[in-house]
Amino acid sequence: MSSILRTLKRCAAVGAVALAAVSLQPTTASAAPQPVVGGTTAAQGEFPWMVRLSMGCGGSLLTQQIVLTAAHCVSGSGNNTSITATAGVVDLQSSSAIKVKSTKVLQAPGYNGKGKDWALIKLAQPINLPTLNIATNTAYNTGTFTVAGWGATREGGTQQRYMRKATVPFVSDATCKQSYGNELVPAEELCAGYTQGGVDTCQGDSGGPMFRRDNAGAWIQVGIVSWGQGCARPDYPGVYTEVSTFASAIKSAAASL
């Protein structure tokens, strides 16, 4: 479907997640912005591995010193001390927020704007908070997922001060391709959202995790907020990097940092 533009949920200066379940999606002039519906404010300490990055993206603590985010949130690989990671709080303005500078960035090898949307950011020092395990196989790629972040609550909206959360159901590759055609990379991407719209990730949520409970009841990350058509539009689910596809590469890259 050549008319679909791959709009990344980047949110550099635009925003944070005001989740109801936000997804990165391109905005077209023909469709009116829709508010993100269904999200609520997260409780302090509910998702302790959530990270807000200063370029306007989200992320998760893969280890206490490495943040997993989206490739489209960074400009390449190498030494980088320009990014500040904020963690440990729901309220970004809280005096108890933990702020740590970056030292290195590793963008997914071969990333060219389509698929492979993951990156790692090494921090100057460890953050003493719980980390989020990543899925290493497809066992948890279905069901209902949780998304969280400080992104916009509507298309074109602004970053939120308080972290929000929402739940979104799995959408099959076949159904997702009906909306996105060949722009979707089924082997590397996972879709989630509602046919009727109303709940999705949005600008500023990019790089944040999509997660669910594993069989032992622990949180596990299955996706990374990547892109989509607008925010919470009917028939346009959010598109997420399929973490299990890249789990081995992510772990190897983290060890190299």
TrEMBL record:
Q: Which domain of life is it from?
A: Bacteria
Query: What keywords are assigned to this protein?
Result: Disulfide bond, Hydrolase, Protease, Serine protease, Signal
The residue ranges of the Peptidase S1 domain are 36-255
Q: Name one Pfam family in it.
A: Trypsin
- Keyword Cell division belongs to the record: no
One example of the protein's molecular function in GO is:
peptidase activity
UniProt cross-references to InterPro entries, sorted A to Z: Peptidase_S1_PA, Peptidase_S1_PA_chymotrypsin, Peptidase_S1A, Trypsin_dom, TRYPSIN_HIS, TRYPSIN_SER
User: Biological process GO annotation list?
Assistant: proteolysis
Manganese is among the record's keywords = no
* Protein name per Swiss-Prot or TrEMBL: Serine protease
User: What organism does the record attribute this protein to?
Assistant: Streptomyces ficellus
